[in-house]
Write a structure and sequence with these properties.
Number of helices of chain B: 1
Structural class of chain A: alpha+beta
Distance between the termini of chain B: 26 Å
CATH architecture of chain A: Sandwich
Strand content of chain A: 35-45%
Number of helices of chain A: 3
Order of helices and strands of chain A: HHHEEEEEEEEE
Helix content of chain A: 10-25%
Number of strands of chain A: 9
Shape of chain A: globular
Largest sheet of chain A: 6 strands, mixed
Radius of gyration of chain B: 14 Å
CATH class of chain A: Mainly Beta
Structural class of chain B: mainly beta
Largest interface: A-B, 38 and 34 residues
Oligomer: heterodimer
Strand order of the largest sheet of chain B: 4-3-6-7
Strand content of chain B: over 45%
Number of domains of chain A: 1
Largest sheet of chain B: 4 strands, antiparallel
Distance between the termini of chain A: 62 Å
């Protein structure tokens, strides 16, 4: 009996390990990492999302963002990179919660994204990219916001 | 998320450039309280072409209102269809299709 229990446990464990691998191309980070979306500080959100791995500053990712944003309700950001990126996450420290958007880059595609964000006040924005080899790259920039967005 | 989404996709030299605009208030808890509305924001966007995922993002309410996304991808031709599926914080989904020009 004990042996049977042990075996079935093994099957369950194997299934649990296998699922994220087969489902790599469809990760809803809001469901898989709910903690990361509640974190206040960028550092905590990064930890919740990517774990404790070391962050290396990089210049291989190009971020275009205004130094001074007049309207905090709509700040255009664009990200571009030639690295083999798996996951690209964007954080800011201005709002009650830090995580803003997490891109899963499909196999074989390059990063070339533009989007707009809201910021309540002047703060740092942080980009964290996880490359295929599992390394984490980061870069940040301060954006001055003169009129806060986000309903403030 | 009642209104339609606007999608533009153009192929040139094997690279498809996409502009997409989704209709959503993108109001997170705090903002919704101030405006006296229910929180409403898109949480998950997925873009597919030829059965392959070409774009995928999990978002929070701190994207700007009516999020406009621009991105490019490879591996699709003119006439192929691009499909977007949105999921919002209430679990509602919305789909939009457009042929690549």
């Amino acid at each position: 009996m004990e042996r049977r229990n042990f075996l079935s446990m093994g099957v369950v464990a194997a299934a649990a390990i296998l699922v994220p691998v087969t489902d790599l191309n469809a990760v809803n980070f809001r469901e898989t990492k709910p903690k990361a979306w509640e974190a206040e500080k960028s550092a905590d959100a990064i930890k919740a999302l990517f774990g404790d791995a070391a962050l290396t500053p990089t210049d291989k990712i190009k971020m275009v963002a205004p130094k001074l944003a007049e309207n905090g309700g709509s700040i255009p950001i664009s990200l571009k990179s030639d690295l083999d990126i798996e996951t690209l996450a964007f954080f800011q420290d201005a709002n009650p919660r830090s995580a803003t958007v997490v891109f899963t880059v499909p196999e074989g595609q390059k990063v070339n994204y533009s989007f707009r964000i809201k910021m309540r006040q002047t703060a740092f924005v942080t980009v964290v990219a996880k490359t295929k080899d599992g390394k984490l790259h980061t870069l940040n920039k301060e954006i001055d916001v003169s009129i806060g967005g986000c309903g403030g | 998320m009642a209104k339609k989404m606007k999608i533009k996709a153009k192929e040139k030299d094997g690279v498809v450039k996409v502009k997409a605009m989704f209709t959503s208030l993108m109001a997170d808890k705090e903002e919704a309280e101030k405006k006296n509305i229910k929180p409403e924001f898109i949480t998950y966007i997925v873009g597919k072409s030829n059965g392959k995922v070409v774009f995928e993002a999990s978002t929070s309410g701190f994207m700007a209102e009516n999020p406009l996304l621009k991105f490019s991808f490879t591996g699709a031709k003119k006439g192929d269809e691009l499909e977007f599926v949105l999921t919002d914080n209430h679990g509602k989904t919305q789909t939009g299709k457009k042929k690549i020009k």
